[in-house]
Structures are given as C-alpha cells and as structure tokens.
Amino acid sequence: MTNSERRHGYQVFHNYLLKRNFLQWQNSLYAKHFATRESAYAERKRIEQVIPEDAKVAFIYLTDKQFGMIDVFYGEAKTPKPQDAPEQFLLL
Question: In this structure, are strands 29-33 and 23-26 parallel, antiparallel, or unpaired?
Fold first, then answer.
C-alpha cells in the first residue's frame, strides 16, 4: 500500500467519524457521547467495518464521573471552560 493510499484511507475514516458526529479533540483523538453502553457498543461495531487496513484504533469508555474529572484548557489563559458531563463517552 502506498503512502497516498494510506492517506486517502485515513481521510475517508476521518470524514466518516465526523459525519457520525464525533468531535475531533486532537489530530487522532475523537470523542462522542452515548446515552447507553449498548449504543456505544453498536457504534463501535459500525466503526470496525471502516477502520483503514493498517490503522491502530483503540476504544475507551468513560463513565460520567471519569469524564467529569477531565481538565481541559483552552488558549493562553489556561482557564478551563466548563463542560456538560455526558452519561457515557467513547474515545477513539
């Protein structure tokens, strides 16, 4: 597989995640809230079908409490912006 083919595969995967309403937190970190564990698992099954051939993907499941303990900083002021704590979060 050429580098061009790899890049294309990753771009297709990136676009798929965005169309599925994932938030891109960093270059290779995507997150999405799910109301139930079952819906998160169902989404994971869909994503497994479109993962590029040579990609490495990890699924991390967080509880509300764990997500609520994340400190996120924006800009130079280093002040965290408040976030609504979802019931469950899936990170890729």
Answer: antiparallel
What is the rounded CA–CA span in Å between residue 8 and residue 71? 33
Helix, strand or coil for residue 58?
coil
Q: How far apart are the first and last CA of the chain?
A: 24
Domain hosting 10: range is 3-91
How far is residue 56's CA from residue 38's CA, in Å, rounded to a whole number?
23
CA angle in degrees (0–180, nearest 5) for 17-22-26:
95
Q: Please write the tens of the pLDDT for every residue from 38-86.
A: 999 999 999 999 999 888 999 998 888 888 888 877 777 655 666 666 6
**How many domains does one find in the chain?**
1
